[in-house]
């Protein structure tokens, strides 16, 4: 929307690289791919929509496929985001390590697990830790999450690993075990009370 608000942007006679930070980790390049196509009922803007790690403008390993908007005219503004936009976003956040998360009892108020809980599932943990200790989880994506657009939703496939540590009384940690994770989720976007929301479903 900010692109549409910059009047001087429409006055450009040649395409210009336009970068804007999304957050501290990523930037988006929404430069014009070509000059605006002006028709009697509308203006068509073809923007790049490439997301980069902040300060790193190496092209991501994806190819943008062409697509068209549905032939509708009952709204003032139409925005379309391609699969390529989400693919580059996923790649940028993966490159910056945004999918690497450490969960501790201090950082998550809902987190209340201990070696006793894991020991009831994995006997080796119970043998190692007779005294219950708090645990710390380290989650890491091992590959770039794959984003695929569907008819009314999009799916995200994630390959990762989780390492579980016991937090000892002297604040040091002891690795207990590591497990690989493969997850496939569906996200269906909806608009509720003028806000874009998403419902998440774990497929497998």
Automatic annotation (TrEMBL):
Complexes and interactors: Monomer. Homodimer; disulfide-linked.
Positions in coiled-coil regions: none
Domain Lipid-binding serum glycoprotein C-terminal: 71-204
Task performed by this protein: The cytotoxic action of BPI is limited to many species of Gram-negative bacteria; this specificity may be explained by a strong affinity of the very basic N-terminal half for the negatively charged lipopolysaccharides that are unique to the Gram-negative bacterial outer envelope.
UniProt-listed GO biological process terms: defense response to Gram-negative bacterium; innate immune response
SUPFAM superfamilies found in the cross-reference section: Bactericidal permeability-increasing protein, BPI
Keywords on record: Antibiotic, Antimicrobial, Disulfide bond, Glycoprotein, Immunity, Innate immunity, Secreted, Signal
Positions of transmembrane segments: none
GO CC annotations on file: extracellular space
Domain notes: The N-terminal region may be exposed to the interior of the granule, whereas the C-terminal portion may be embedded in the membrane. During phagocytosis and degranulation, proteases may be released and activated and cleave BPI at the junction of the N- and C-terminal portions of the molecule, providing controlled release of the N-terminal antibacterial fragment when bacteria are ingested. The N- and C-terminal barrels adopt an identical fold despite having only 13% of conserved residues.
Gene name linked to the record: Bpifc_0
Main location: secreted
Name used for this protein in its record: Bactericidal permeability-increasing protein
